[in-house]
């Protein structure tokens, strides 16, 4: 049976009203990124970092964080990391990942998330990756009590020098992020599939970049002692990878091939496997991989102020007059032109090294030119 | 907790309302081809190579490496120390009613077996069997004809090694190989000592096994002579002193430093996207540092158990050196590298192999020494290739530099010359420059030779011939060509 267009319309309408509320409530944890900044706001999360009941979390999230003491700081750190990384990756683009400072009641990334566009795909992937990364890191540092980090684990069959270190950190981070982040995606529309996919894609970049490395030590290259360690990727590396995926994100449509598969009766209970299918909008393209970002709406051009996505436009943005890329004035200002002004800076110059050990500099005044979009 | 969590497919989300999803997706026929296509999600990794900050290196590499190393070495060190205490009790005075020597040798054996059990578990049986076979051979040859004792023992050991190579599982064999080398050296050493008359009294079973499994040398070495081993009965002459403690602690700290350098720092300094020769140097250096780590650790164990000292009247000097990293990292020549790589082993090879084969001619003796050395390491193509290459390289280097030093009358031989009558001494700028150039050439050869000990996944079971040749051909066998070129040049001048 194919879904009739009418049914889809009704379905989506129903969803828009239903899911907006939950999503906006659900992603409030992002405001944890603001912890540590001085604020008089009574709703500021820093005030009640240690009283989970007041945190901007859903009931399930709250339960999860109380069950795993120590995670809330890691989440806050992760949220901050995600915001910083997002702004770093998009510093030269029209949409530069603006943050709504007084975002209580909504998401700090603003209304862009109400669109199923590339930018929101990136935000979802990045935040979920950040939680996984930050929780894994906190695990390794030993600040989360529930993730066991057993350095003594040995193989039961007597083969010693097996890796017994903190290999569980990444797993714990991944799992925690999945429980913590995905729990809010309770919608019934296509968008939640997209969000789930993007969340997972983000986390996957963290775990697949994580590598175990071992080395043998012994007489003449034999293997008497073996030491191993895990390497968590830099979050910048994850951000870079996700940015690549952002550029190559696939536009998808709800799949028409997915279905429930029923696996054989094993042990009485029927296990149902759910299948997601996100089909590429362009049938010549490959279906999106597990690490690819997906979106289903075109991004706005981000030129003018757009209240529906809460973006102020590129007016007043600095641009590079000589660049032909997206940070160049032509593209950044969407052809509206730009104004140039010169300004003076005082900086240290002609520094010399004096033995030993001083560096002496002069202070020079230089004139620089700044271009801003009209 | 399900293990599928990390890489399971998207379908195992816990919190999806199945009914809603079904309502949403229901009614479409399954397209098997499409299903398959969807299963094959792309797995691509674009490697991004950056240097991680030191703090991260500390957390993720240095700390686990150190903790794992310390945790696994501490029991061995305790055993060594307790063994020394036990030995000290034996002859605290010159009383006649002290502990009989056989009991000391027996406790040496027991401590050694305990240490082996810690590291190899049941695999230690192969070492025990080898030692017992060796004793049997000693008794037989001693009874029939003492002169052939050494040769027969050497042949038996080689036979045993080859058998193990084929019978044992590769990973298992690879893990005990280090201990087996030390054991073989001890056994062959005793046998040659007996056959050339250095050792007159035939060792009894307790002495023999105590020596073979002496706790201070059984895991990491170094090789010590039977004569030195007998000092366990004279521990009252080697009391616990500051210098003893200093030797232990300094060696231990050096060992820790080397293991951290080998596993973490070297790979951190030279990244994967560097020039291939830098990467070769990195692999080789990591291997060398790993070797220094083992050498220092062996120094710790041997000194801690009260061996490896020299007596100067009543003075005890804890002066054992297994490797001298300084002479290897900044080499004068490959000859020196080979010497300082493992001083006890060098001494062993010189005493038992080189001197025995000397009547066949120097070149043959050098070659046979390297052959013996690679036989000791088992039938490993990689090690054999490296050692034989080293054999030829050192020979070529030796004769070439000898000839040059004669022509220019300068101190540019492979070994630094003491009171030679060359016109240009070692402090002449040209001589210094020439020696530095030869040193750089040695570094180049070392990078090339050590490159394939690169901790690749096959490390645990030993490297294959394929791996070796792959690595060398990636560098176009350049070092071999250079060595050949040097030799031809040597023949021409």
TrEMBL record, chain A:
Q: Where in the cell is it found?
A: Secreted, Extracellular space, Extracellular matrix
- Biological-process GO terms, alphabetical: canonical Wnt signaling pathway; cell fate commitment; neuron differentiation
Query: What is a single cellular component term in the Gene Ontology annotation?
Result: extracellular space
Residues spanning the signal sequence:
1-19
Q: Which molecular function GO terms apply here?
A: cytokine activity; frizzled binding
Q: Which keywords accompany this UniProt record?
A: Developmental protein, Disulfide bond, Extracellular matrix, Lipoprotein, Secreted, Signal, Wnt signaling pathway
The lineage's top-level taxon is: Eukaryota
General function of this protein? Ligand for members of the frizzled family of seven transmembrane receptors.
PANTHER family per the UniProt record, alphabetical:
PROTO-ONCOGENE WNT-1, WNT RELATED
The record's comment on protein family reads: Belongs to the Wnt family.
Its recorded name reads Protein Wnt
Organism annotation: Potamilus streckersoni
UniProtKB/TrEMBL annotation, chain B:
The protein's enzyme class: transferase
One annotated Gene Ontology cellular component of this protein: endoplasmic reticulum
* Enzyme Commission number(s) of this protein: 2.3.1.250
Question: What Pfam families does the annotation carry?
Answer: MBOAT (PF03062)
Which subcellular locations apply to this protein? Membrane
**Where on the tree of life does the source sit, at the highest rank?**
Eukaryota
What catalytic reaction does the record list?
[Wnt protein]-L-serine + (9Z)-hexadecenoyl-CoA = [Wnt protein]-O-(9Z)-hexadecenoyl-L-serine + CoA
User: Example GO biological process term?
Assistant: lipid modification
According to the record, the segments passing through the membrane are: 125-141, 148-168, 206-224, 244-271, 292-310, 360-377, 383-400, 430-452
Record has RNA-binding as a keyword = no
Query: Chief subcellular site?
Result: membrane
Keywords assigned:
Acyltransferase, Membrane, Transferase, Transmembrane, Transmembrane helix, Wnt signaling pathway
Q: Name one GO molecular function term.
A: Wnt-protein binding
Question: Topology versus the membrane, per the UniProt entry?
Answer: Multi-pass membrane protein
Protein family = Belongs to the membrane-bound acyltransferase family. Porcupine subfamily.
Query: What protein am I looking at?
Result: Protein-serine O-palmitoleoyltransferase porcupine
- Source organism of the structure: Potamilus streckersoni
Lineage of the species this protein comes from: Eukaryota, Metazoa, Spiralia, Lophotrochozoa, Mollusca
